[in-house]
Every structure is written in C-alpha cells, then in structure tokens.
Amino acid sequence: IYDNEVTTIPILHYPHIVLMPGQIFPLTLFDPGSIAMMRNVLAGRKTFGMVSAHSGAPQLKGLIGTTAEIFEYGELAPEPDIGITGFKIKAKGRQRFRLQSTHTDNSGVKLGLVKMLPEISLTNPFNSSRLRSCDRKGDRKSLERNLRAFSPMPSYIYFMYDSQKLVSRVHTSLLNCGWYTDRGGSGKIPTSPEELSWWLAANLPIQDTWKYHLLGINSDIQRLRVELCILATIQVLVCRRCYNDLADQTDIFSMSAEGPQGAFVNPGGHLHETLTVYKAKNLKLVGNPSTEYSWFPGYAWTIVECSRCFNHIGWKFTAAKDGLRPDKFYGFSRKSISSALGKQDDTRPPPGGGHFPGGEPLSPAQQQQHINDDDHSQHDMADLIM
What we know:
Layout: E1 6-14, E2 24-29, H1 32-43, E3 47-52, E4 64-76, E5 86-104, E6 110-116, H2 140-150, H3 155-160, H4 163-176, H5 193-203, H6 208-216, H7 220-233, E7 236-239, E8 245-248, E9 261-265, E10 271-277, E11 283-290, E12 299-306, E13 312-319, E14 328-333, E15 337-340, H8 364-371, H9 373-385
Parallel strand pairs: 1-3
Antiparallel strand pairs: 1-6, 2-5, 3-4, 4-5, 5-6, 7-8, 7-15, 9-10, 10-14, 11-12, 12-13, 13-14
Helix pairs in contact: 4-7, 5-7, 6-9
C-alpha cells in the first residue's frame, strides 16, 4: 500500500499488543466472526489492520495502528470434548496507518478507513553548509571533515542526528547490557537505522503507552534517540502490580531469532508478549513442570507468580533434555511487568486497589495514584520525545 494512500481494510482491535512494523506475531482464533474475517483477508491481499486497545479511548477514530500481512495459516483440529474448531495464523507488521473511521459490514466484519503514514527520511542537517566541490571525494571521513570545517555548529550536534552513529550507540548500549549473546540461538540485531528502531520498539520491556508513542514517531532518527534514552533508564524489571524487583536489565537475553521478546499464543488463543531472562528473583512457583504445549521445544514450563502480591508474572522454563543451553530461564509476560530505574522501594503499595498479603488496604488516594500510572508514563515518554 502506498504512503498517504487512503484505503479500507479489515480491523482487528486487540488488547495489550502494540504491533510494530517488522514484528512477527501468531494468532489462534475460535470466534466464527474473526475466522470468517481472516478467510476474507486471505482471499484478498492477505493484509489487515491491528489497533491496540491499551489507550482506553472511547472511540477508535484517530488511533495509529499497523497493517499485518499473513504469511502462514492453517486449521486447528476440533477439540474432542467441546468440538470447537480453531484457525491459526502468523503475520508480520508492515506499515503504520491512522484510523479515520470504522464501520461493520453485513457479515459482521469491522472495516476501517485508514490513511497510510509515511516514514520520513531526514537528510543530513548540514548538507546546506558543506563545500560541494569536496563531494567528489565520496568517502565518509572526508564528508565529516567537510561538514566540521564549514558548519557553524559544533560536530557533536551533527553526531546527535547521524543515523549511523545512532546505530553504533544503540549496539554499544545493547552490548553493555548483555543483549548481545550467541547462547540460546539469538538472531542478528539489525544494522539498518529503520529496522533497528522498529526492532527495539518491539523488544523493549516498556509500557503500552510508551510503545504507542514510539509507533507514532515518523522518523527512525528520532525513534533511535528516544530509545537510547529508554535504554539508559531501564535498570530493573518489576512486578507491574506491586513493584517488587524481579530481574535486572543485564539478565535479559535472546532465546529466539526475533530478539529477547517474542509473541506466543497458548492453546486457549491468548497472546502473550514474552521477555526471556536468565535469572529472576522474588517469584513463587505454581504447579508442576509440563512439556505440553511448550513454546520452547525441549523445555518444561512452570507458572510463576510474584511472591508479594501473587500476580501472574510468566513461566520458568527448565531443560527436559540433556545438552540444552541454557538449562533454565524465565519468560515474563510483558503485560505483567514494568521497567524502573534502580532498586524499588519495597514499601510502595500495589496499584488499582487491594493490599499486600497481610497488609493494610490502600486508601482511595493511593488507589487513584496507581490507576493513573500509565498516564504518568505517557507524560514521561512525551518528555523523552521532546
């Protein structure tokens, strides 16, 4: 679909998933209406739109979403006890769009009138002040010397908006926090500025509101600048409900070719964005290990909860076969965790009401403070973008 083109596509309104261009995700559908919609999509150009439900907006008009192209699909055998037939797909995020209006057709499929959003490529900020007679030399070092000599601005300002230097800074930051590793079959981290910016947006363990702001940025240079700020602030991963420390940033690693965070779907059709970490703390195991429906072949999974508030955090994976490395790791569900700067205050109460086990109930003011946590994070992200 062309940039700035206005077109109509089927819309899937999915909670807690902010799809980024280049991100791969699976879906398992059991609702007959959703299955019919996907069959119609497959009969056409195999593309539908995905809009996140995170923002709580009273209407979808004006929201930014991402088109998804289906590249794999198949029928699920009906369950013997209940006889429900499912339909599974794999799709990849492609282009950003702004939703202008929605309507439902006669078959019950939600359609959206969307305008495709272009990706803006910023030119060199000092091109106008360069000495054009030196262009014939062509090599990058000569160009940089040319710019430094004739620009009224210091060179460090140029470097702040140089896409290749931003890529280098991001790779250095990822190396320092341990995301570069060959263990676990990690894939290659992109080197293209645009691909790297979307890869980071999909893999950073941040709130939905922050991801939505990243999706709204139309330049890879500005996205990379914001993401560098985010990488500098993330030090620990905490329980989103009670802020209990769970893991350090350096514990994050890639278990799949897509990066440290991947999208997985369970047999019930629930989609989980799962972040893999080597080590974790303050968790409680629930139940016995099982290899059934494991997302990582050869590993058994066990449910883990926060030891303080009993919020479901994710799963512990342990090797069920000899020779697998690592022999154990954890998968955190992104909707259950948050990122924070440094060690958290253990006395901070959980958001959204209730109380710690054995503790006093929260006051209405405390409950409202934590209900508005996402609003605060939205303003924090706006500060980073500015």
